[in-house]
């Protein structure tokens, strides 16, 4: 199967660049089941990183264009490569192939590992947004906490030792003070640091790499012949009434 | 005080046109407290009407640009003129003046009128989205039901008698079968038909005009010197760190 | 419009006296929209202050008599002047004009300012009662905490500096430890100290003056031609069946 | 042990009269464990029956006076003889002996009989009030429904066959449509008709006589040496601070 | 009435032995209402104590055999003598006499004593299980906390002074930090130490002896002629279809 | 990887027999990703089918023995082959390899397909049990309904056309009346009829084969190097304290 991992912003033009995209593509292909081919594709219009509701809103229209093109190009599923799952509902309206978001995928996987989950996020200002995503995934009851590390997305890879240390320290608070049984990396750059095993060993609870979780979720759906429900994410009414996709976009 | 009612799409270019914008502006000014001046402003980039998550996503970036301009131009508050409250959180991040959404305003007002509320919406496909907005407003526990009338936004004004009849019929089901104590018009075009009194008389429960509710909410906040909390809707981190607004927008 | 602010106890005879009533009336009229006239009216039978369920129960029958008289005297709305909203449901059964309670009004307004709210109350023993009121308002999900200042109602005005200091200290705990985005003054005497701006500046989150919030809520309802739903707060069955109001009161 | 069953209104002066009080006293003593003596005492000030929030508010102050007198007179516990549990919280503040309410007692007993419960109430207008009591008891999650029979309290005993028939018909809807596993009689006059076994046989689910449930609850607490928590229902602050009970009552 | 207190394991063969069983039987009979006779019966197949889901699962089949035999032998009700209520649902399927579990009985009784409850349990690893039982009882909303004392079941009686001290210390944290109004002993051996009064005096909140609570619950049900609902706990379908009990047990 | 699918009862000795076990094994291997080998293993002690809490309790001890043996024999994960997930928590306490239950796996997968889910179960008497499992999985908020088909487990394969018809009829009610976006087959024999595509086409919403879902869940966990959290499912305390497994089992 062919899976598109769509980065909702122009990563190839930004500080991480094409090299990081290729590194992530290699990791995803290494994590995949035999027979899966993953392509990492970025979106040319959008912010350098997504750390606010505004930046999230900015990236959605162009990201959905890319996801629609992926479906036309024969991909079997798409992953939205940001832990805020930007545009997940809108993308599902316009596709029939599965579209998954790493936050939803990780939360639902983590829910099977224990009673209470915690998310390691970037900033305090993103805690409420993560709580909303837990509600949308249906597992808010299992959310023990969302704790911020305070390291901006674009700085996570600059000092990996400091990042590792801060992640372990924050994760330990989730386990000890919030009774978390499992941990989520609440940012794709965190996940692609591939520190889940180290963090898990350090704090005594499983930690979920969101890139792996989204990939396995997509592979599971394709393998089972399933996709999101069109009663939940219906094609927009104007299109159901026979108008073209273009008619949706402008008055 | 000066309040901007921002229509998140190019209404002046669409089927309703400038005339309908002016009619709504006149109504809003008639509903306002003495001393309030309301301007209706549309957004030149966006869909003709918003009936899906995709159309909602499409309108947000340009709508926020207009709201930010309104703040710079000295408006005291802005109303996002769509019952899906598109971009409410993102707009609040970038402003200090109050920005209100008619859905949130109506839900919180309705919550003071009785134990259970129902929303009259456009299509079945919009029920789940309205339920999510009730959760975000904090009053999901009071939501009795969301029921669709099945009349597309752009057709609501074409046959007013049929629209009135369908609204009353649907509202009656909310009261009788779902135990609703109060009703919300879940679309601004419904609200600007100004049928709240007729529907209310017909079904024996108060009905809330969302345009009025958002206006009163904005007037209340300005009058009290209040605005949304910046701990809840903080300025994006890059700007707090000293980067310009433009730096947010592109990689 | 004419609004009655009904103090549910004999304030004019108590330690605060007629002077304080007049001061509050002046403040309310200063806060009102143009065209609103507010009268502060106390109830001659009842406790000196309300700090328990028992004192609340004591004040209700006579308070409702006054509210009913206000409606007969042509007032457009009534505010029950105590943050416990004593008798709110019963008063709504017997009136058609809007009757609002400052706690409900403040909670629903605060719900539009952020994700999580905290109430500053008088005693630890009043925390559970405030939580129940948040449930009744429908916004318990948004309640971050209720924290007591420990200063009795009748002492709040004796040492304003100490009161201000204690309010700021308690509010800061709500923001830092409980993640509150907005604060409520959980007592009318606290609100009429008019310290919202000072507390808000000190802790970095909006604080809501409950007197203002109730006033704006009443003005909004009257201005919109709305009142509480009679399906939610119906006239007592004996009266609906044709018996007189007097027949309700004695066997 | 001696238990006071306090009717919160002047039953001896009303249509049911002293004879009905004596009949209820005999039933309660017949239901009691060996060694328990129950006295039925009415309250001379209050409404003929309680079918609204207003009538409930009316009865509370005098009812609490009677309950306090009962404690001084050596009773071991009191039952508030109305299914709305009027004044339960206030009475607990002023007593150390157990005070129980039939609604709370019945709900907590019913919660041990199955997954879902239904309450048979008097009027549609009382449904929301019963739901609030289920929330206060802590078992709202188990409430399947509250259904009204439509027979006023004072008419329940006039045509017992019709009452029985209506109760069975309503209970059957609770079991079949709402999946109730157990039924509560939501009015003391219903309970003292002593129809639990008949209704239960007819619909195939246990039905709880609220008079028996409250009695057993009181006997249990006295027998175990338990009473309500004074952290939950503390003595009013003015009394804790050394003022007399009388000081609470007037300004 | 005759009540069987069934210990779900071979206590007579274990470290506590027959002497402890007889001591518990004497206590239960001393706590009972006049006319109640309690027999303590252990189950010959099962673990020495129950501190995990696995040990709980181990004891259930044989415990249900004993409970069924008790019903055939003319007992009026059975108590499952472990605070995890092992096998409660299964036992109710196979009996018509009441079967009660001390955890459910205690939680529902405690719910009538205050707003928030805490359970004192054995190990941290048992917290999530206790939370699940609170959900099943329907009162999770009232659960303030579950705190572990860290003393294994079989060690509780070895050093009673240390146990008392640890219980008081843990209970005090529940009251002060978690706002508990009432406390539950989350283990039968804790309850049979009969320390409720001491703990209650020390921390200022009622503490519930789970053995007493289960006994009173059973006595209440028998006295009222009630038992669990057979719609909630139906006889297994194969038996309803006419097969024998033995046919259930093997393929 | 090697996965054990453990049937919690003696299927090879029962009416379905070894042939059906082999058919299921072939299906599971056909559904698996390349490189996965699935073995179907039954448990020699237990009921013929599981349709009650009692039958569930009966099968658990022997099923856990088999799962523990599987781990010793080098399997990488185990699936408990019953939709009630019997013994899931206990098995996780005693293993470090992943143990999954088809109900939990299906619920969490379905939660990613839409807003509301429905489970097709065997008997009305199993509805409450399925609701409890949805609570344990953390997704009760998404459960639209559990509806019974009324066909006993052992009859499902006798008349496949009738089973298919009944499943489609029941699924259609879930979609139309309960607003389900996705459907679960609430019994493994239902799932192994492999009718998901037919049911899905007939009702217009995805249907989840629980056997496939559990398999993909197990493959995902093994592939990611994850297993259940040992803080959530700790080894029993006696073993942590150094006693042998055998010491757990008898007094």
Automatic annotation (TrEMBL), chains A, B, C, D, E, F:
Cross-referenced Pfam families, in alphabetical order?
A: Asp_Glu_race
Coiled-coil ranges per the record?
none
Q: Which InterPro entries match?
A: Asp/Glu/hydantoin_racemase (IPR015942), Hydantoin_racemase-like (IPR052186), Iso_Racemase_Enz_sf (IPR053714)
Q: Which domain of life is it from?
A: Bacteria
Family membership noted in the UniProt record = Belongs to the HyuE racemase family.
Name of the molecule in the record? Hydrogenase expression protein HupH
Q: Which organism is it from?
A: Nitratireductor rhodophyticola
- Identify the taxonomic lineage of the organism of origin: Bacteria, Pseudomonadati, Pseudomonadota, Alphaproteobacteria, Hyphomicrobiales
């Amino acid at each position: 199967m062919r899976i598109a991992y769509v980065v909702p912003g122009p990563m190839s033009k930004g500080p991480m660049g094409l090299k990081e995209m290729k590194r992530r593509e290699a990791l995803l292909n290494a994590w995949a089941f035999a027979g899966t081919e993953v392509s990492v594709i970025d979106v040319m219009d959008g912010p350098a990183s997504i750390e606010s509701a505004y930046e999230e809103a900015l990236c959605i229209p162009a990201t959905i264009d890319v996801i629609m093109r992926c479906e036309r190009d024969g991909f079997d599923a798409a992953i939205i490569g940001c832990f805020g799952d930007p545009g997940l509902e809108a993308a599902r309206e316009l596709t029939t192939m599965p579209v998954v978001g790493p936050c939803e995928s990780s939360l639902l996987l983590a829910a099977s590992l224990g009673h209470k989950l915690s998310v390691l996020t970037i900033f305090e200002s993103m805690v409420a947004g993560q709580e909303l995503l837990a509600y949308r995934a249906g597992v808010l009851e299992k959310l023990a906490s969302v704790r911020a590390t305070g390291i901006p997305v674009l700085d996570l890879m600059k000092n990996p030792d400091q990042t590792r240390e801060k992640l372990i320290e924050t994760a330990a608070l989730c386990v000890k003070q919030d009774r978390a049984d499992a941990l989520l990396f609440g940012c794709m750059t965190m996940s692609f640091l591939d520190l889940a095993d180290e963090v898990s060993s350090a704090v005594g609870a499983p930690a979920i790499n969101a890139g792996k979780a989204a990939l396995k979720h997509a592979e599971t759906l394709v393998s089972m012949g399933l996709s999101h429900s069109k009663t939940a994410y219906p094609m927009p009414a104007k299109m159901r009434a026979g108008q073209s996709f273009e008619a949706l976009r402008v008055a």
